[in-house]
Amino acid sequence: MKKVLVVGGTGYVGTQVCKKLLSQGWQVTVPTRSCAQATHLQGLVGLTLLEIDVHDEAAFTQAVAGHDAVVNLVAILHGDQAAFDKVHVALPQKLARACRAAKIKRVVHISALGAHAQDPQSAPSMYLRSKGQGEAVLIEAAGAGAQRAFDLTILRPSVIFGAQDKFLNVFAKLQKVLPFMPLAGAEARFQPVWVDDVASAVALSLAQEDAGTTSAAKPKIIEACGPEVFTLRQLVQLAAQLSGVRGGRGRPVMALPLWLGHVQAALMALAPGEPVMSHDNLDSMKVDNVASGALPGLQSFGITPAALRPIAQSYLNK
Ligand SMILES: NC(=O)c1ccc[n+]([C@@H]2O[C@H](COP(=O)([O-])OP(=O)(O)OC[C@H]3O[C@@H](n4cnc5c(N)ncnc54)[C@H](OP(=O)(O)O)[C@@H]3O)[C@@H](O)[C@H]2O)c1
Predict the structure, then answer these.
(1) What is the DSSP secondary-structure string of the chain?
(2) Closest CA to ligand 1's atom 1
(3) Which residues pair with 251 in a beta bridge?
(4) In the predicted model, is pLDDT for residue 214 greater than 60?
(5) Level-2 CATH architecture, domain 3-160+194-224
(6) pLDDT in the model for residue 146
(7) What's the whole-number average pLDDT of the chain?
(8) What is the pLDDT of residues 290-312, one digit of tens each?
(9) What is the mean pLDDT of residues 233-237?
(10) What is the pLDDT of residue 190?
(11) How confident is the model at residue 215, as a pLDDT?
């Protein structure tokens, strides 16, 4: 039985990736900072939780050894430059060294639409710039042609919807309590992709290597997007409609100019917990989050990406 280490496997997308890989016969190891926080994965047959600090290179290298493949989903949405560098750049560097040392054959790395490995600094936010740097680190370490150390697939998803998502669910919840929706970046465009399609792409990427059918001569970069483009305003309205807020009419959306969005972000930063919208999130929305079309999409795996409405209806309308 093939073994895969799913780093970031406890998270929203990682959980679906783990379940997909288990269903396809993989033996899955998930490193986590806290097994106690990962109760949703406990008891899954074929899955082992490993409590380690993935930033401790010796411990991480030891965890990677003995696996056939590694999937990396670790990321943060909020933090300062040092935090983004640690999680999105230094961790891929450690992962690359560990994979080379352990002779890992395949790595799948989940990045984000809007990250640019070739020109990371061209991205508008710390999140996207550091994601691009992380991609570049892995591409260089993977190598190409006969010299390649491991096969690498990078998935760049737009925003990911699914029963546990943190955007449609949040928009629906907020509209249940607020009289109106103050919204910065209302006209920013996204191409939401279903979490199950992302998980399938990870599994298919690993399966191709497993079957020996394709051995990529150079790293593959995939734009993981759904079939439709929505503005943020449309997504907020759709969340209300599908969850039945005010009989499906939702709350009036009050589009905020960018400067007022930053005032809102500053106020949110004062509250405990993760903000709904940070300064860096606002910076990310300066560019549309839609597929460029210059790179392959999920269709290159034979996946027909699912439409948002019927799936979102099934979990928002509860
Ligand atoms: N969700 C989306 O809409 C979306 C859109 C585009 C791209 N993506 C990408 O998809 C991937 C998965 O996203 P997600 O939404 O599933 O994220 P998530 O739910 O926040 O999960 C993040 C994972 O990373 C680990 N992690 C978080 N901070 C860490 C830190 N400082 N040090 C070490 N580990 C840390 C957590 O592990 P433990 O807490 O168990 O240690 C957790 O398993 C990420 O690469 C993200 O950038 C997501």
Answers:
(1) --EEEEETTTSHHHHHHHHHHHHTT-EEEEEES-GGG-GGGTT-TTEEEEE--TTSHHHHHHHHTT-SEEEE----SS--HHHHIIIIIIHHHHHHHHHHHTT--EEEEE--TT--SS-GGGSSSHHHHHHHHHHHHHHHHH--GGG-SSEEEEEEESSEESTT-SSHHHHHHHHHH-SSEEEETTT-EE--EEHHHHHHHHHHHHHHHHTTS---SS-EEEEE--S--EEHHHHHHHHHHHHTGGGGT-PPEEEEPHHHHHHHHHHHHHSSS--SS-HHHHHHTTS-BS--SSS-BGGGGT--PPPHHHHHHHHH--
(2) 160
(3) none
(4) no
(5) 3-Layer(aba) Sandwich (3.40)
(6) 85
(7) 94
(8) 999 999 999 999 999 999 999 99
(9) 97
(10) 98
(11) 53
Ligand 1 centroid–CA 200 distance in Å is: 18
Query: In sequence order, what are the residues at sequence separation of 6 or more whose Cβ sits closer than 8 angstroms to the Cβ of residue 52?
Result: 31, 32, 33, 59, 60, 63
Give me the pLDDT at residue 213, please.
Answer: 44
Against a cut of 0.90, is the pTM above it? yes
For residue 239, what pLDDT is reported?
97
**Ligand 1 atom 15 nearest Cα:** 12
Q: Mind listing the pLDDT tens digit for each residue in 55-81?
A: 999 999 999 999 999 999 999 999 999
Measured in residues, the chain has a length of: 318
Find the residues whose C-beta lies inside 6 A of ligand 1: 8, 10-14, 32-33, 38, 54, 73-76, 87, 110, 112, 157, 159-160
- The domain spans of the chain are 3-160+194-224, 168-189+227-289+304-316
Q: Which of 34, 160, 164 to mutate to test the pocket of ligand 1 (most atoms within 8 A of CB)?
A: 160
Quick: pLDDT tens for 22-46.
999 999 999 999 999 999 999 999 9
Q: How far apart are CA 105 and CA 103, in angstroms?
A: 6
pLDDT tens profile 263-289? 889 888 888 888 888 999 999 999 999
